[in-house]
Design a protein that fits this description.
The chain is α+β, with helices and mostly antiparallel strands. The chain has 29 helices and 27 strands. Keywords: Aminotransferase, Transferase.
């Protein structure tokens, strides 16, 4: 079957950033003639600067500036030669001073990204393994992808989850020599710390464990000689630890530093680290500025600078603690994070603070999970107490207004960041607006005529179909296929429907829409743990259905308000159920919906394309073939129609016990052979209940006697089908071949799959049903039989990015191999 088109991560990021750019909060330009560090001018407005990562303000220190200027005069703007051959005259002095700071000779690279690319492939041996914290910086994760070329295991754990880390160590310990755990010292968005004491204890317990830290945000403002957060936490660098730090950001210059205790390893990195060998070296001005900064770090002045910043951090923190603002990871780092959950709230808050004269950074996907959007506020020595206090006052004033403007609430924010909060109950209620909402947990409470007029005639979710699904998937003994149903009907005060939809809550495989190769890797793990990488999902529609699950009366003046009301109700239910993911699915491209859902914290992804046949009206094979394109007509006449005579075709509403057992085996064959849409296997009870429902029927294909030979007469002697379609008759309008089963030993020789599709078309015509919902996958085959292919999208919200990032590593693994 044809591969499904899957969402492109780059397109998703592009859409998020484009939305933020449209709101005027990213991709800005500073307009200052002179920068001081304290203020910054954007769009003609001067603002206090609370977005820098130069926490000590050394980038504005006159000594660093003078040194850089003199170096350009003395040595030029650059020294265009690989450092492997010769370093320019200032390098030796810088390396000596950095060694004095740390007590260890450094390796100096152009920047930390190139540093990781130099170190990691050299450091990690073929017999080693890597475990990454899923929030470790992108530059570390990117460098680790190179390891997969050599077959080195690269695993991922949830952020600072030591229990998960220890479990991974145990799994890898018998297979690998060294196991490297990679993390940030200070995380750049939330400002939280790596759990250093616990990691050191774990490394003592497991001697195979080695630690690799990116400490670029912990540099200078912390530690003796400003050596950073990690060195302050661990003291002397142990043999099993590598630290990457920076001469950029707080250090005030450019470049990055690498520290390891082992001299032989240091030499190896310098000799074999690609970016060290083949990239240009730091410019003389950068090296001279770094030397001037190192002199400050080696003097007692660094203590005064650190103390000054620390006092301001504590002052800011003390003011924030007196508010009810949802600050995340409030500690003594210079990085602060105000949670907003919804991107739109962040945009509104940033705009308001801009207007009040405060520059801050929006923190958006992919730097944070889409529903963990917020505002990153950073302090530096440039900030004065009066503007710090003014910022807190502005935040207190504007936050509730930004929430109100974006249809958000403190409750939603706290739930998004797992901050304890009372959960409001869902109830049927008339809104203060002119909308009325009906919420039910069974279709029997919904008016049948209204439902079928709005959402009937497609897939298996007309009123009768949903009654079947509730009976088949509610209160079952199989947790994998046990669903709760939730129905929403929103009308205006006159009872005119504005929006109608339904959701189901149950377990999904996280790789449901991932590539088949990823699913195959995960299914191997599920042999040991059947629920590995699965999530509790509140999803629009159900896993059994596809199509437009949401009716929206777009011409109604309250349509957008109804969408907002639905989101409010569904997100409340999402938190009440403590679901891992919220999915709105099977929409066609719509600019208005894109804008609404993106601003409310949903990521847009591509769904598998769906196939339908409409106006299925013809009275002969000649008329049917005439509806096809010339190429498809040739295909039909050669690859489909001639094979029909090989089969006895039977249509039944009831199956014998033997037929039922065979039908389920055939379904399992297809399910186990196709991971393009990876769901749980339905239990046999679902198929048995089809036989007791008057809308279901079965198309069975038997090989007739003319096509039996010694190699294939077993099925014939048993009189068992080799192919089956499980078909639903939706009202008097739509035919739905919902599931398929095949014996693959006959599939190629007799074009079995194509024949089953054709028989569905014929049966729909016999029943005078003019539409066929062919569903997803195998679009190439269905198109050749006259189906129209329709692109679909979904919008998702997840508690965190872990599953998506983990599958991203598996996707890269697949591409490498």
């Amino acid at each position: 079957m044809a591969k499904i088109k899957h969402n492109n991560f780059i397109d998703t990021v592009d859409e998020v950033i484009a939305g933020a750019k449209k709101e005027g909060v990213v991709h800005l330009y500073a307009e200052d003639k002179v920068l001081t560090g304290r203020t910054i001018q954007i769009n003609g407005k001067e603002m206090f600067h609370f977005g820098t990562t130069g926490y000590l303000g050394l980038e504005q220190d006159i000594r660093l500036k003078d040194a850089a200027i003199q170096a350009i005069r003395d040595y030029g703007t650059q020294f265009p030669l690989s450092k492997s051959y010769i370093s320019h005259p200032l390098y030796y002095e810088l390396e000596s001073k950095i060694e004095q700071m740390y007590g260890i000779p450094p390796i100096i690279t152009k920047n930390s990204t190139l540093g990781h690319l130099a170190i990691i492939p050299t450091l990690i041996r073929d017999e080693d393994a890597v475990i990454m914290d899923h929030q470790v910086h992108w530059s570390v994760q990117n460098a680790c992808q190179l390891l997969k070329l050599r077959g080195i295991p690269v695993e991922m754990i949830r952020h600072s989850n030591l229990e998960m880390l220890e479990d991974k160590i145990r799994q890898l310990s018998s297979k690998c020599n060294k196991i490297w755990y990679m993390a940030d010292g200070v995380y750049s968005m939330f400002g939280d710390y790596a759990p250093i004491p616990e990691l050191l204890t774990l490394s003592q317990k497991y001697t195979q464990l080695y630690l690799y830290f990116d400490d670029v945000h912990g540099m200078s403002w912390k530690g003796k000689n400003g050596t950073g957060f990690i060195f302050d936490a661990i003291g002397e660098l142990p043999e099993n630890c590598i630290v990457v730090s920076t001469l950029s950001k707080t250090f005030g210059a450019s470049g990055a530093t690498i520290f390891c205790k082992n001299q032989k390893l240091r030499d190896k990195i310098k000799n074999f680290g690609g970016p060290l060998t083949f990239s240009a070296q730091l410019e003389p001005a950068s090296v001279a500025a770094a030397i001037a900064s190192a002199d400050i770090h080696l003097s007692t002045e660094i203590l005064s600078l650190q103390s000054d910043l620390s006092e301001k951090i504590e002052y800011f923190k003390s003011l924030l603690e007196k508010t009810d603002l949802p600050m995340i990871a409030l500690n003594n780092s210079p990085v602060f994070f105000l949670g907003t959950a919804m991107p739109l709230t962040a945009y509104k808050m940033v705009q308001r603070l801009f207007n009040d004269g405060f520059y801050v950074n929006p923190a958006i996907y992919p730097a944070v999970p889409i529903k963990n959007t917020g505002i990153r506020i950073t302090l530096s020595r440039h900030n004065q107490k009066e503007e710090i206090k003014a910022l807190v006052e502005a935040m207190k004033f504007h936050f509730p207004k930004a929430l109100e403007e974006s249809g958000n609430s403190k409750y939603k924010v706290k739930k998004a960041f797992r901050i304890a909060e009372t959960i409001p109950q869902i109830e049927n209620r008339e809104q203060e607006t002119t909308l009325v909402i009906q919420y039910e947990t069974s279709i029997v409470k919904i008016n049948k005529q209204t439902w079928d007029e709005l959402l009937g005639k497609q897939s298996t979710f007309d009123w009768e179909g949903l009654l079947f699904l509730e009976n088949a998937f509610t209160n079952t003994d199989c947790a994998k296929n046990n669903w709760d149903f939730h129905y929403y009907v929103i009308t205006d005060k006159n009872g005119i429907p504005v929006l109608t939809t339904f959701f189901t809550y149950g377990l999904w495989k996280d790789d449901m829409l991932a590539s088949e190769s990823i699913s195959l890797q995960l299914e191997e793990k599920r042999k040991q743990n059947p629920l590995y990488l699965t999530s509790k999902v509140l999803g629009m529609g159900s896993l059994f259905t596809e199509g437009n699950h949401c009716y929206i009366n777009k011409t109604h003046p309250l349509a957008e308000e109804a969408i907002m009301l639905l989101l409010e109700q569904v997100e409340t239910l999402y938190h009440q159920l403590n679901a891992d993911m919220l999915v709105l699915r099977d929409f066609e491209e719509d600019e208005q919906l894109n804008h609404i859902f993106n601003n409310h914290g949903f990521l847009k992804i591509n769904m598998p394309e769906t196939c339908i046949i409409q106006n299925n009206k013809w009275d002969s094979m000649e008329e049917f073939s005439a509806t096809l394109s010339s190429r498809s007509r040739k295909h039909f006449m050669k690859e489909v129609l001639p094979f029909e005579k090989a089969f006895d075709i039977v249509i039944k509403e009831k199956l014998t016990k033997e037929e039922s057992e065979q039908a389920y085996k055939l379904y399992q064959n297809v399910k186990n052979n196709n991971h393009a849409i990876n769901t749980f296997t339905y239990p046999i009870e679902v198929f048995q209940k089809m036989e007791n429902h008057h809308h279901w029927e079965f198309i069975l294909l038997y090989l007739n006697n003319n096509n039996n030979n010694n190699n294939r007469d077993q099925q014939s002697s048993l009189n068992l089908p080799i192919g089956i379609l499980f078909c639903y008759k939706n009202t008097n309008h739509t035919y739905v071949p919902a599931l398929i089963g095949m014996d693959y030993s006959y599939a190629k020789e007799f074009q079995l799959y194509r024949q089953l599709l054709f028989q569905a078309i014929k049966r729909a015509r016999e029943l005078k049903l003019n539409r066929i919902d062919f569903g997803v996958s195998a679009t190439f085959e269905k198109r050749k039989l006259g189906a129209t292919v329709i692109s679909k999208i979904a919008y998702i919200q997840a508690r965190d990015n872990f599953s998506m990032e983990l599958m991203g590593t598996l996707q890269n693994d697949d591409k490498i191999h």
